[in-house]
Amino acid sequence: MFLPFFVTLLSFHNAIAQSVFSLQRPQGSLINAPTKGDVAFFYETTHPIKDQMGEWNFLLKERERASVNLLNEAGDYQEIILYTEDDDVFSHLQFSYTENGQLQHIEEKNQLYGTVTLLNYTFDRRGRASSIRCTLNGAPLNEMVFIPKGRSRLSEKLVARQHNLQIFSEYQDGLPLQREVFDTNNALISKEIYTYNKQGLVSKTESSFTAVNKGNSQSTFTYRYDDRGNWVNMLEHNHATGTFTLVTRTIVYRDQLPLRQEQPVGLWNCPIDNLVLEVYEDGSFDLIDGQKREVLHGKWSNLGWGRFLFNVRYQDHFGSRRPFRSNQGMTMELREGRLMLYDKDHHFDFLAEEIRPTPEIIRTAQAHAIWEAGLWESPGKRREDAIPSDIKAAFDNAYPVAPNKFRVCLDSLCGIINEMGAVLLPFAYEYITPVGQDLYLINKENKAGLIDQFGGEILPAIYDRIWWEPKIGSTVFGTRKDGKRYYHDLKKGDFLPYEKDDIMSFNDDRMVVREGRYWVLTDRDFNPITKKDAYYVIKCLSADRYLASNLRRQYWILDADGNRISAILDYRNIRKTIFGYLEAETYDSNLYALLDHDGKQLTPPLYERLTFCSDEKEQAALFYELRNHNAIAKYRKPNGEEGFLTGLGEEVQSRK
């Protein structure tokens, strides 16, 4: 499951000794895709987690990596395309097999570093791998030799230029249970222990290192499966660095593949990037970029031999993603259920609409985005025909507000008409504009209101301001009147019972509200879960963990049902640091300890200061320092000692 990450390390001279042995699976197929059933291909994306809103609903940081994984009919890897976080192709891997299905070699073309790495495999008479020879740009780089040491133990000797490593692995039912790595002097470098779930997937890894400047590591893995038994989400918690990572798969089975198309006409979705491509028979296309919230228009043409040329019009080059700005265009190819769009450095992989249907709400938003983009000839210059000439002539002011709908004004009053001039909403408002689906925001006598598509009143025009609040609910609108702000839920037909400033936080299933001096945990219908006078403050830590305190500054960790999971004694000023972790200050010594979100104390209160990385870009130097030391924070003690602290409570010396 971690194959793509390890394989790309082959192109780094200093990482050879640490990575090649990770490819070896001596029992059975060497490199087999971790899937069940007849899988044609799958996409994988990896995101660090910022926060949690529901059981499998996370707020994600920017994508770290992604891949397209193509399988052969035997279920083994055939091709892998790896991406960097900014959508460039990082590496391209091709797998070759012998006639009897044994892996012959893997070729990696690393486009980021301009290298070509080739792994050649040899086998013994029993079909077990006996060696892997690696070349870099045609020159010998290293060789790994595998020597069986009994039924479940294997010795792996790696010679990589100046580095000689000896790896001893133990297996059970074809799965590695542990690996020990020794240097040339037979000194232990590291040890890894693996634990598996009932499905044969890694559930826990433990890594220990002899170097004093690298913290030991422990990771746990949780999976969510599709109806065919393959995992589609993997949640990894690295207990040393404190990071949570979500890996998401989009799996396509062979029985889902549509008939192969001769032309690229249709709707296509990109599972890795937030892109939707609609290709028309007249040789044009619309590319909707959800990340940049823009629509690119262009032309496509047939190059022959199953290839097409894809050109974004030059007016849309400014501000678009780098690969779409080229005057040479990009090449488009069709595969079963896939459309590939690529040039020398980039690759975008789209799925057919039949395989991955677009939700109706997204289709509506796409149609509106395409319509809105079509109004402009160039940035800041609206097309002359965006408003029909007869409508322009008939009204004081006219403005397109939706496909075939215009806001027009007569004698300072506005209404809505269609392109034929038929009045849809009367000339009765100082201002009117669509908001949401079939809803209109209006102004009367400088007050805001809300009406439906037939002019029926939903909220009277008595408010200073009205806005849509989708974070709380898709049918929720915020209102402000006389300095007070309340939310109105159209689905319930009523206002929420708390003012905006008294709704302190929320997630998929719970709300935290303020009633006078106290905070209360409620369900989404505001039925109280905790007693109304029990807690002075309640802070949301995750979808099912809350930090609560009373007026006496006593702290508890609550679950989603309001039960006290643990009490945090002898501490004050407890605060959330990064997702899943707390920092607590003692009453007597003013020193800090590290806790997890269950309230478990991970370290004693020894630290004058703990420094966490909350933003990888703004704190880039700190981010890489913590990564290199396998740590969650930097620490400083009262005696001036400084170093790094892991989420396992281990102190690590700074690398000089």
Describe this structure in words.
The chain is mainly beta and 656 residues long. The strands form 10 sheets. The chain has a 16-stranded antiparallel beta barrel. It contains 5 helices and 53 strands. Strand 44 (546-549) and strand 45 form a beta hairpin. Mean pLDDT is 87; it is low at 1-30. The two termini are 34 Å apart.
Question: What average pLDDT do the residues reach?
Answer: 87
Please indicate the percent range of residues in DSSP E strands (runs of 2 or more): over 45%
Widest sheet, order of strands: 1-3-4-5-6-7-8-9-10-11-12-13-14-15-16-17
How does the major sheet shape up? 16 strands, antiparallel, barrel
Helix amount: under 10%
Based on CA inertia axes, which overall geometry fits? flat
What separation lies between the terminal Cα atoms? 34 Å
Count of strand segments: 53
Contiguous runs where pLDDT drops below 50 for at least 5 residues: 1-30
Rg over CA atoms, rounded to whole Å, is: 30 Å
Total helices: the number is 5
**Helix/strand structural class:** mainly beta
